[in-house]
Write a structure and sequence with these properties.
It comes from Magnetospirillum fulvum MGU-K5. This is Surface antigen. The protein is of the alpha+beta class. The chain has two domains: about 70 residues, no CATH class; about 80 residues, no CATH class. About 45% of the residues lie in helices and about 25% in strands. The chain contains four helices and five strands, in the order H-H-H-H-E-E-E-E-E. A five-stranded antiparallel sheet has the order 1-2-3-4-5, with helices on one face. The longest helix is centred in the middle third of the chain and has 23 residues. About 5% of the residues have low confidence.
Amino acid sequence: MRFGPVSPLLLAVALAGCAEPTDGQVTGAAAGAGLGAGIGRAAAIGTHYPWAFAGTGLAAGAAVGSAIGEYVDPPPSRMWAAATIEAAEAARPGEPVAWSLRDHRGQVTMIGAGWTDAGGRDCRTLRQQAEGDDGAPPAFVRDVVACRGGDGTWEVVTPPAGEK
């Protein structure tokens, strides 16, 4: 049974269709596939199976390129986390810190004034929300408490009942 150069490409496309890729993943996979196929083809010089080497290089390059692209292009959860930290660190009460990435967007707003908890940490109440598409009401809203640890990093904590 002989597989042509299209087989690895079809496999890569089929696997890529399992989830919605980010822009970085698409760009990384395309660049990696081209580079990997070129390296595979060059490694095959003098063999009877140049397309097998090129196909393997294409698939491996696409996988590595996609992984690098995903790392470079953050998912919405990282954008949300960064907005939460920014709101805890620098926002004034009622001032939203917006985030967006492709078709995902939302905001984090500090509610009221900050306070110091029983452990001496600076704390803030924050409202996190993810916006609905096309002006629909927010799809997700929750209030959280973020407290600054001794090392200066912010941590989202669940407030004990009755403490604020």
